Amino acid sequence: MIGAYTEEGQDGDYSFLSASFDNFSVRTIPTLVEIDLNEEAKEMEQFSGKDTVRAIVLEIESENDNDYNFSYEGKATAVTDTGEELTGFTSPDSTLAKEYTEEDYGEYGYIYFLLDDTSAEPKELEVTFEVPTRGS
């Protein structure tokens, strides 16, 4: 981990940031990390043979207090203080993006934002979450 982001106005202590959508909430601490890629990942087109990548990672906990079903895709976008716009993607093992039922209380997962510059150290971050879609 290279660093973490705090909510504007906080005193610098790292605590969960929260977003709420009609009784569904997500909590996260955004962190800036450097990831050593395995051999399989290095061969993927998006990494162009890099050995490491830098990313902003949202480790997400979700909480559902609704009495109806809805879908949450775990989609988010971020804009850094340098103006770089990033599209997030969830990890393959994430249980965050799914169809939630009335009985589902909480899930867990990661949203990753890959930075183009492997030495970038954004100082500020604005994250926008896509809202859940109410089911029938």
Structure commentary:
The chain is mostly beta strands and 136 residues long. The protein is 3% helix and 46% strand. The protein contains one helix and twelve strands; from the N terminus they run E-E-E-H-E-E-E-E-E-E-E-E-E. Strands 1, 2, 3, 4, 8 and 10 form a six-stranded antiparallel beta sheet that branches. A three-stranded antiparallel beta sheet has the order 9-5-12, with no helix packed on it. A three-stranded antiparallel beta sheet has the order 7-6-11, with no helix packed on it. The longest helix has 4 residues. The protein starts with a strand and ends with a strand. The relative contact order is 0.24. The mean pLDDT is 84.
Features:
single chain; mainly beta; three-stranded antiparallel beta sheet; 12 strands; globular
How are the secondary structure elements laid out?
Layout: E1 3-4, E2 17-21, E3 24-36, H1 39-42, E4 52-64, E5 70-72, E6 76-80, E7 85-87, E8 89-90, E9 98-100, E10 108-114, E11 125-129, E12 133-134
Average pLDDT, all residues: 84
Largest sheet: 6 strands, antiparallel
Structural class from helices and strands? mainly beta
Series of secondary-structure elements, N-terminal to C-terminal: EEEHEEEEEEEEE
The percent range for helix content is under 10%
User: Rounded to an integer, what's the Rg over CA atoms?
Assistant: 16 Å
Number-wise, the strands total 12
User: Oligomerization state of this entry?
Assistant: single chain
Beta-strand percentage range: over 45%
End-to-end CA span: 41 Å
Query: What general form does the structure show?
Result: globular
Low-confidence stretches: none
List the total number of helices. Answer: 1
